[in-house]
Amino acid sequence: MRWDYTRSGNPTREYLEKEIAYLEDGDAGFVFSSGLAAISTVFSIFDRDDHIIIGDSVYGGTYRLLNDYFTKHGLSFTTVDTRDLDAIKAAIQPNTRAIYFETLSNPLLKVTSVKKVSALAKEHGLLTIVDNTFLTPYLQQPLNLGAHIVIHSATKYLGGHSDVLAGLVVTKTPALSQQVGYLQNALGPTLAPEAANLVRRGIETLSLRMAREQQNALAIAEHLEASPLISSAHYPGLKRDPNFR
C-alpha cells in the first residue's frame, strides 16, 4: 500500500512536495511542520565533529538551534559575512562540510551571491545550503545558481495568508534526496495534510503577491528613508543601500 501511514506520506503532502521541487527546479521536495523543523532536519545529515560555516545575519531562531542545540551534539560553526568571499575562505577548516546562509537575510536584508558562494564551495568540496524564504522561487532559484539544498519557511511568503506554519526543503541530487527523505520519516517533523493544502493554496497566488509586495516594500522604504526621524532604512531596492544592485 502506497500511503499506509500519514507521517510516511500522503497524497496532499506529495502534491506540495512535487510542486515546490518543480518551482525550485530540484530533484525532490520535502515538507515539514515549520521552517525550523526543516532546518533541523537538514543539519541532521551531518556527523559529529563536522564544521559548518554560517552567515552572520540569519534568523535568531536558527542561531539558537545551531549554537545551543547542535553544538551539544558535536557540530561546530563559524559565523562570517557570506558577502565576503575572503572571510569564507579563511573560515574553511579540514572538517568543514557546508556553507549555510540566507539571501535575503532576516532581518537586515543582506544580499549574498549564491552563484559566487556556490562556486567557492565547489572548489573546496562543500555543500551550499540556502534559505530562500524571503525571495521565494518566484525571484530566485538557488539550485540553478549552484546550491545543493534550498530551505523555506513556508509560513511567510509561500503560505501567504498568516494561517499556516510550515517548512520546505528542496534537494539537488538523488543522494541528498535520500538523506533528507530518510530523516523526514525517521524524525517525524512532517506536515499535516490540512496544512499542506493551505500552503498549496498560497502558492497559487505567489506571483501576484510577490509583485505587489515588492511595490509596497519599496514605497515604504522610500518613505522611511526620507523621514528625518529615521537614521537608516534597510532595503536592497534603495539606491543608497549597500546591497543595491
Automatic annotation (TrEMBL):
Keywords per UniProt: Pyridoxal phosphate
Cofactor(s) required, per the database record: pyridoxal 5'-phosphate
This enzyme's EC code(s): 4.4.1.2
Any one Pfam family match given in the protein's UniProt record, by short name: Cys_Met_Meta_PP
Substrates-to-products reaction catalysed: L-methionine + H2O = methanethiol + 2-oxobutanoate + NH4(+); L-homocysteine + H2O = 2-oxobutanoate + hydrogen sulfide + NH4(+) + H(+)
Catalytic class of the enzyme: lyase
Record keyword Transmembrane present: no
UniProt xrefs under InterPro entries: Cys/Met-Metab_PyrdxlP-dep_enz (IPR000277), PyrdxlP-dep_Trfase (IPR015424), PyrdxlP-dep_Trfase_major (IPR015421), PyrdxlP-dep_Trfase_small (IPR015422)
GO cellular component, one term: cytoplasm
Similarity remark: Belongs to the trans-sulfuration enzymes family.
Name the record gives this protein: homocysteine desulfhydrase
Protein's organism: Lacticaseibacillus zeae DSM 20178 = KCTC 3804
